């Protein structure tokens, strides 16, 4: 009887000690990130502007965009939307190529990336990005129709734009488009806890926003060693103050939702994928082409996640051929 009484008492003490230890660890976890220094990111957007850079405002956010005019007899409007961690720099081969062939080309930096705004509390969901992007386009070229081109994360934005205003869309091109559903997960809620957000900022600054890390990421995305120009083109915008906070908040609100809603598209759709894409695998390209009835899937063999940069001639020819077939009377 005495042993039976002591056993529950010992168990109770063990559970109490365990609870105290977990509480202590939780308190330490919550305090330490505020004691760790955050490296200052000191670049500003004004230092990194291009000759054709401009800025516009939507939803109290400042957007950076670049414009390549197609000439007096332009034959259409194209919007280029970059992927995660990228910027208008990603379209350095595609934009002038299309402009030289008569298209008015705009490349837009999404909020928190490139030279666009880095406010806290931005909604980074694909639907919010789509609404803001349309607001910018209505300011730049009211009542125009558009060929939308989105790469990776930007593919979700472009797809949401097409779903939001199909009557203003001529066509949609998804370059390794990350458009399959990524709904709300536990991580979206975890990053609302301030100490978790602070930890994420610490790791972003010290382990992600470095030249070496950017070079490693590009090596994975390109499938080859990036040049110094390529590394610098991606790294410099990431040194703009506030980037660490943005990357953290993307984990909180960066929800992708086009998914199966794309099955209702009645628009010309082109999917371009690199055969060796390690970030958004080709299997997703086949799935997207299956969901969207009539979508074309073009595979660039032996290429990775960024074919518009690593195989620009092939990518541009595929895109131009598609655009010309969408509007044959304008060529």
Description:
This protein is α/β, with parallel strands linked by helices and 331 residues long. It has a domain at 49-180 and 256-326: Alpha/Beta hydrolase fold, catalytic domain (Rossmann fold). 46% of the residues lie in helices and 15% in strands. The chain is built from twelve helices and eight strands. An eight-stranded mixed beta sheet has the order 1-2-4-3-5-6-7-8, sandwiched between helices. Helix 4 links the parallel strand 5 (146-151) and strand 6 (169-175). The mean pLDDT is 90.
Secondary-structure topology with pairs:
Blueprint: H1 2-35, E1 53-58, E2 61-68, E3 76-81, H2 94-100, E4 103-108, H3 126-140, E5 146-151, H4 153-164, E6 169-175, H5 186-190, H6 194-208, H7 211-222, H8 228-238, H9 243-253, E7 269-274, H10 282-291, E8 296-300, H11 307-310, H12 312-326
Parallel strand pairs: 3-4, 3-5, 5-6, 6-7, 7-8
Antiparallel strand pairs: 1-2, 2-4
